[in-house]
Amino acid sequence: MTTGPEGLPTDALAQRAQSGDRPSFDAAWSRVAPALHAWASLHIRPALRARLDPEDLLQEVACRGYAGFDSWSEQLGPFRGWIFGIARNVLREAFRRLSAAGPRAAIGLPTEALASIPDPATAVTRAVARDDAMRRFVVRCRELPEADQRLLIFRGLEGLSHAEVGQLLSLSPDAVAKRWQRLCDKLRAEPRWSDIVAA
Amino acid sequence: MEPPLPDSILVDFLGRLLADRAAGAANTLADYQALYPGHERAVQAEYLRATTGSRASVASTGASQGRASPAARMASPAAGDAGRVAHYRLVRELGRGGQGTVWLAHDERLERPVALKLVPRSPLVEDLAPRFRREAQLAGRVEHPGLCAVYDVGFDDAVAWLALRYVEGTTLARRLADGPLPREQALALIEGAARALHAAHEAGILHRDVKPGNLMITPGGEAVVLDFGVARPDEDGPPLTLTGDALGTPAYMAPEQLGSARASRGSGAPRLSPERRSPDRRVPDRRVPDRRVDDRRVPDRRVDVWALGVTLHEALLCRRPFEAPTREGLVHAILTTEPDLPAGLGRDLCVVLRTALCKDLDRRYRTALDLAEDLRRVRRHEPILARPAGPIVRLLSWGRRNPGLAASLGALAVVVLGALVVTGSLLAETRATLADVTRLSDQKVTRDLLDEQRTLWPAEPERLAAMEAWLAAAQPVLAREAQHRQALAEAAAGSGITDAWMHEQLAQLLPALDELRAAVSSVQARMDFARSVGRLTLEEPHAAWEAAAAAVGADPRFEGLALRPQSGLVPLGADRDSHLQEFAVLQTGVVPTRDAGTGKLAIDEASAVVLVLVPGGLTHVGATPETDAWCGRWDGPIQTLRLDPFLLSRFEMTQGQWQRHTGSNPSTYGPGSRLLDAERPLQHPVEGVTWADADRVTRELGLTLPTEAQWEHAARAGTTTPWWTGAEPESLAGAADLADDYARTHGGHDAWKYVDWMDDGFTAHAPVGSYAANAFGLHDVIGNVSEWCLDTWEDWDVQHPRDGDGFCSVDETAHNYRGGGFLHGPAEARSSTRNGGPPAFFSYYVGLRPARALER
Lengths: 199, 856
Description:
Chain A has ten helices and no strands. Chain A is mainly α and about 200 residues long.
């Protein structure tokens, strides 16, 4: 659970947003957006960029998150995990539509709810997508071996536990923890690392 | 039953699959399954859904097998099903194409794995059994490790099969999904494939479908050419199809293949030339837009050379030389455009690619072996045999496109040239040829000499003879330098060499000669050093060596060690605090002197490396949470071993020491950086060095990197606390350059691990020796820069450092660096903190501390 300039953990911000303080949603979103952008950029590989833009994906996730925010509660798990759950759904649908659309067709994401999303959240998304340090971070992550990339995505970005990642990768939680520690040691000096990666 | 694919895995898999498909890299189901162990069946279901649109689950596929036709059952058994074809037991699917599937199968007669290609036989589809038979017959003609052998062929009413050698590895197409191959690997791979194809060609077989998907990269990095499914004997007519379509993959097809396929389809008659189909010979046939393509030629082995050229281009750049969104556009591009090659490939490689991809058959490599040989030359930096298109070739090409005008100008030229024939021309030509040969020879010899001089280290008397022989070989080459420079000047003035390729060779030779001249100076300096090193380090300081030996012999920490004089080192006496003997490495700089009053060594930018004789004995390295509250996961368990005494530098290697030896300074924070001490920037530690460079440079200087065990033993200097300064981080004040309050407020990076209570006065690294030394007299083992160690990063649960030198190495993928750096907090700079990176990794906080084994 991260704390920000306001000193509030992300989940506390989200709770405050649910009690009516909608700007807190923007603050909570700005905590998760960098990780989400890195996640989307790693999944949407360069060969697919012409057909599906990570920034569009982020906007769509922000829209759905904002629209369905009332359904989140801390009992369901951390805000970060909830947002990533939405992101996985959006990306899965997008990939399936791409697959069905043929090799060259581009798809747009159904961002009809875009008008309803507050400007600050949109601005956060745009700023993250245009951040050079973020771009360099993604490039650096792309250079990692595949196994490390998956570990970074599942453990570092989605914020899954070692046990959950172990189930996904057929590894023991201890092995995941060791590999994660090793990866952190390798990457923690990278710019944006502490903003992006789940503790 | 395996649960459905978790969403996290699902989006990862779909993203990869779609990207692979978008890149045209067809991967097999087995490849994807291998990426997601534990989810094989779910991946298979999703794969089927994505590739066929089928929503059928694996379970339902299996359940419906009883109703499926025998052909369908055999061509597509469910994963894990013990399917069987003849005497082959199916193990798992390796790949799937439009015509059938390929399975890993077990040959139960010969007890060996095979790749079994299965194609259903049906009245509705082309019967591939004849092609299988032919593939087997063709493959039987040749045996080569780079070719996939065909073991067996057969068919029944339901299915045709082909049993092939099972080759482990990954296809080039699959590999390219991760980005282009490193240049060396790409060249070696295509060279191997070209040699294999040459063997096939010599046996009279054309492959005709060379592409990344048909090149397997074995675990050893060798190329194996797969799938002779569309191969044919080179004396045959058109390939066997029912439709008349050209077999092969269009993006990799040579212009003459496309030309002949179009001709065949267009008229129904084999390979009519465009001129014969056109009523007016001056009107170009729009189906073959460029007459540089002579499609009257029967495609021969050069179609495979072309495809190798396309494949090499793709391997290097991850894109093909001819691309278009439609098939027609692609054919047009192949027939009419020239590949756009980035200059970064290098001139020779561009020439090789252009020659392999030349539309004019007469100028393309005649054989795959020719291509392989030139690739070998490019790899070895030797002159290639292919030549770029010169003005005459370009003129001829232009003439083919403009025949009327060319004929008129040609006639005029014949008249003029005829009048200029002189009898001395033969003699001049002979002289010019001799000069050409000399230039090419000098170029080769120069490159060899430059390679060889890198081996003439360290500068020891034992190498004097080799260095003398090297100089004797270099001097005649340098003696001809003036002659080469004159030739280049004449060429620039428009006389002498007119051939563009030879001009280029000459232009490359001269900088190489500059390098050779510098190498001669370096080797002469090494010889001078090797001739004097005995006198300067053994004879003149004889008394100092005796004193050092006496002191060491009397020191119980050395357990009676008899210290011998060590060549290349100058004894400096004992440090007053540590009471350990110190020695200067003569070759690395100025031998420092001790201050008469304090007994401290006076160190500056010009100083040589100072080695401390570190006592060995029984030692413990590593940590556990019980001994160290900050212990990291990799820091233990504690290793107990017995180390021999060894020499380790008192300081981290400085930028000055590195620069004096290598002529360059890779440091991020080097001279001119505002974060350095401007008065003595070269006394800062060198950083930004890879492990490979650190290893090379220390070896050249007759030194080495310390093993991890040696490093930690020396850093601890007899202590068992997390830092040699004590058990609490606050003990580090005045003893280390870490990420402190000063750095935070003076330009340090946001990501550094700051501690508020420390103020070491530097943002980045500090000049070596700025902080207190440990009990062995070693400075900066905590912080400043991390230090590469010799051995690789092993899990100490599994691999243990050995007695003697503490070496521990199995896996070459990562090497350790120790000690933390100026950007770290105390927890990351403990004596037992382990960190590491691959040999090519470098960073602004990783340097080195040289060591040396004791000659005993």
